[in-house]
Structure formats: C-alpha cells, structure tokens
Request: fold
Amino acid sequence: MTVLTAPTAPIAGQKPGTSGLRKKTRVFQQAGYLENFVQAIFDGIGSAAGKTYVLGGDGRYFNAEAAQIILKLAAANGAARIIVGQGAILSTPAASHLIRLNKTDGGIILSASHNPGGPDEDFGIKFNTPNGGPAPEAVTEAIFDATTVLTAYRISDAPDVDLDAIGRHDLDGMIVDVVDPVSDYAALMETLFDFPAIRAMFADGFRMRFDAMCAVTGPYARDILERRLGLPEGSVINATPLPDFGGMHPDPNPVWAKALMDEMFGGQAPDFGAASDGDGDRNMVVGAGIYVGPSDSLAVLAANATLAPGYAKGLAGVARSMPTGAAVDRVADALGLRCFETPTGWKFFGTLLDAGLATLCGEESFGTGSDHIREKDGLWAVLFWLNILAVRKQTVAEILTDHWARYGRNYFSRHDFEAIDNTAADGMMTALRAQLPTLPGTLVEGMTVASADDFSYVDPVDGATSVNQGIRIRFDDGSRIVMRLSGTGTAGATLRVYLERFEDDPAQLALDVQAALAPIIRAADAIAGIAAHTGRTAPDVIT
Ligand code: G1P
Ligand code: ZN
Reply:
C-alpha cells in the first residue's frame, strides 16, 4: 500500500459558513472536492501527523463514501488514530462527547444538519476542535485560506475499512477504532438526568411520541427512551436513519414536523411530543395542545435546571444567540445569573462554556445545550424536559403558563424568506444598513424606533471580534426586529426576520403568537421594504 500525492488546484467557494462547509451533494462528489477540503483542514490546523480524531456523520447520502475517503486522507497525512462510529454514524452531540471523552485532537463531522439529504440535496462537513465544539472563526478562516493555495492532497490507496465491524482496524499503519455510536452518549445522559424518576413516570402511563424524522437520532432515542427508560416500543417513530431521510425535511419545527404537531394537537394527543433533526443536535418539544417555542424552552430549562441531578448545584450563567427571544434573560435576572448574547451559531458559545461562564446555551433555531458537550443537543433537551415533568408532576401547559405568569411572556417568531435572488437580498440589506443612522426617533406602526444597529460581538474570553452579525431595530416599548441573511443555505439567499414583543399583562399572556406580533411584522416590511426588494409578500417558513 502506498501513499499517493495527488496534484490538485484550489477550488473556489470552499468557505465554511455558520456551521461548516455545506453544498449540494453533487458538488461534494466532484473529483477532488472533498479531498481538497479535508486536506485543507489538516493544513489549516497545522498537520494531522500523530493526531487522533473522531469521525462520523448523520448517515445521509454520500456519508459512508466520504468517511472512507477521509480515513485514507488522514492515514496519508500521518494521523495516528481515528475513532469512527459504526457504519460511519455519529450524531453531532455524540461526536462532540467522544472528542472530549477520548481527549482527541478534534473531529470531523459529516452533516448538513437539518437540510434534506440525497443525491440532489445537501451534504456538509465540519471540523470540531479538541474541546468538542465547532471550530471558531480563526480556525475556519485558516482552513479556508488553505483551500486557496492547495497544490496537492495526500491519500492512501489502501482498501476500504469495514466500518460495520466494531473493534480495532488498521489502515496503512493508522489505527481505526470502530465504536458503538450510542453507548458512551447514553451513559453521559444517565449521569445528568433523573432516570429513575423518568422511568417511574413512563411506568405510570405517561405517553410520549418521539419523531426521529428518519435521521440519526432514531437509534439513540430507541436505546435511551425505549430500552433504558421503558417507554413502550413504537413510541419512537421514523426511527431508522435513511440516506434521504425518507424524503423528509429533517428540521424539527412546526412546519416540517407537521405530523407530530397534528398528533399533539389532535384528540388522542400524548402527554409530550418531541422531534430532532438530521444530525441530532436540534430539538422541538410539544405538550398536548401546546407548542413550546425554543426561546421559551431555554428559559424553562434555566428556571428549573436544579431539578436535574447534573445541574443540581445551579448554573454558572446562561447564553443565547442575539436573535433568540429574551425569555431566558428574565430568568437570569431573577436568579442572579450572568447572561450572554452571542452571534448566531453554536461556535460562539464554546469560549463561554470552556471558561465556566455559562452552563446552559440556546438559539431560537431549535438549539439548546449545556456544558456537558460543546454542541447543541436534541435528545439532551428532551430528557431535560422529561426530568422536569417527572419531578414537577405537571403538564407542559401548566409549566408554561406558570412560567409566563411569573416572568412575563416574550412573544417570538422567525419568518424565513427562502431562495431569494442573491442580488435582491444583498440590495435590501445594503439599503437597510444605510438607514440605520436615521431610524432612531422615527414612528413606525405606532412604535418609535429607540435604536438601530448592526450587531458586533467581542468575545468576553478571547477578545475575538465578529462584525455584521445582524441588523437590530429596537422600539421604545421593548419590541425588537432582527434581520440577517442565513449562513447555512445552499440555494440563493435566505432572509431571516426575527420578531419579538414582551408582554406581562396577565390578560394578554395567551394570545396567538402571530396576532400578538402583527404590528412588528408590518413594521419589518415598512422599514426594510422586503416585498419591494425581493418580490415576496409572505415568508416561506414561519417558526
Ligand atoms: C442556522 C440557525 C443557527 C444555527 C445554524 C446551525 O444558521 O439560524 O441558529 O446555529 O443554522 O444549526 P443560519 O442559516 O441562520 O446561518
Ligand atoms: Zn443539526
């Protein structure tokens, strides 16, 4: 077996976005595309020589082939050992845990998260650092820079490794340890949550539906919820990961997890419903007849954290991404906790978690997590809710209603305008930025603009600065509009409009969210001219 040095040339556009490099699968399948990027990872972080990495993905189309290519690139670059999930499968949270548990030099995760999979859909790859988290911007920039100067990649011509066979394998002198993707992760969950209390609640007839959306969480949910906690078999549906996610769009929100929503709002609704995304880091939770928005979910977890054994000592602090609703800020205020506001993307929580400044983190995009790993974690959030339900012995509706009565309610919604023309989207954002200095003081929809800016962030731990992280428009009544362009899309531009209004009048706490936000929705269009610039009069997805 030999190590080949294959001449190559830089491929344009290999720039990681909010969460790694995402492209259409066929782009990744082009000769040298994946090879170039992985070689650039190794070059960008210095070298792979003598290093140990974790490798796995969400099982989407091209996952298995990509894993074999990466193993051969790693071997030829002198890596000492790769820990791979059986079948090249690892949920993103499980990969993060394995990186930390084995004190490795990082990991490579194959996923396009909640984007659909298949030959005509999306594929993605990202590098995580030794803390288990997504590479920070300095690292992704070094990787990108490396993609622009590549002249060759190194690859072994050894045969494929049998990734279905758990145990130790050899690839050109590099150790390949194929491990069970679930067991270490499940063991971690048992240390954090009150499994006996949850088991007792299930034994008592508590009914739950978990929709794995034909994505990676199926085997994890079956093992933990059904096997370890005794939830009746069959409660986890769409539990077999499929390369095309069975045609589903594995994004756990009320639009894409509609079947679950219908069941939870139907006559025979279970007590609790949950879903997770393609790679298992997102979650949606729903009670019988009541939906829990992600910003509220983070706040409820923070307010009730000490009910879970892993958090019984209390929280060091909380963090949320800037566009996320501020419900958790009110809990932090009440509990005297530090509260951080970061740019969009989980990578910005890493320094806070590493420094022990924050314990819980969350994003409005169905992402919640803690310092147990350095990624958001779908099943962890579901188990946290189950723990709270088991201890408080109340329904989801009762817990939410209590929460709003105590802290007030931050009505929050995100409107997405997808696949819009890039030039139109850029034109709209440029025009909006130009208005920022003159917006304060103007009256829109009966509200006066109090401030308008483009969010800049200085990381409180390492001082790294990130600019242009989203336009924020605040009104004098505390309401807020945020607008930014997505950094994960693969077709055209996606405009995200985040809308928020605080309410603490008891008579107004149970309004329909879109109705409660109606003036703010109209104000967003009045200020930014969304329809005029993009030709779109209504969002494609409302969450
Ligand atoms: C989206 C979400 C963001 C999340 C990211 C990765 O990024 O908005 O909160 O961290 O996916 O899951 P965006 O497409 O908005 O850049
Ligand atoms: Zn994801």
Notes: The domain at 185-407 is CATH 3.40.120.10 (Alpha-D-Glucose-1,6-Bisphosphate; Chain A, domain 3). Residues 18-19, 113, 321, 344-346, 363, 365, 367, 486-488, 496 surround 1-O-phosphono-alpha-D-glucopyranose (ligand 1) (CB under 6 Å).
